[in-house]
Amino acid sequence: MKKIINTPNAPAPIGPYNQAVLAGNMLYISGQIPIDPKTGNLIEGDIKEETKQSMENLKAILEEAGMTFENVIKSSIFIKDMNQFAQINEVYATYFDAETAPARETVEVANLPKFVNVEISMIAML
């Protein structure tokens, strides 16, 4: 059985999907982009701030599901410019302990929703 997870502390979905789905002990979190959930505005111009907002949105969803970043087992990062990888990675790394960090892939893409520079999705486990 699946349980839908949504929180007002992360941006509302911009399409026919939910912020996350809990299936058994697995949490599948939809890709989060740098939208400030309080204002609905995009964070733009600084890739570190964009990455931080995306991670904070993920954090809010994890918390709604009763989890933390310690529960994350897989991350997927989609970026428009691989030249920004080091800056994105710098911010991303502050959310994890290097020794217990999840598996991850980082993929450069041609475009992302709302033409943002970064989108991050995660899978977590209770």
Any chance you could write out the topology, listing elements then pairs?
Blueprint: E1 2-5, E2 20-23, E3 26-32, H1 47-64, E4 72-79, H2 85-93, E5 103-108, E6 118-125
Helix pairs in contact: 1-2
Protein name: 2-iminobutanoate/2-iminopropanoate deaminase
GO molecular function, one term: deaminase activity
Family: Belongs to the RutC family.
Short description:
This protein is α+β, with helices and mostly antiparallel strands.
What is the CATH superfamily label?
Answer: RutC-like
Strand order, sheet with most strands = 1-2-3-6-4-5
What is the fold-level CATH name, i.e. the topology?
60s Ribosomal Protein L30, Chain: A
Order of helices and strands: EEEHEHEE
From the alpha-carbon coordinates, what is the Rg to the nearest angstrom? 14 Å
- The total of helices stands at 2
Alpha-beta content class: alpha+beta
Shape: globular
How many DSSP E strands? Answer: 6
Organism: Cellulophaga baltica
Protein name: 2-iminobutanoate/2-iminopropanoate deaminase
InterPro entries: RidA, RutC-like_sf, YjgF/YER057c/UK114
Pfam families: Ribonuc_L-PSP (PF01042)
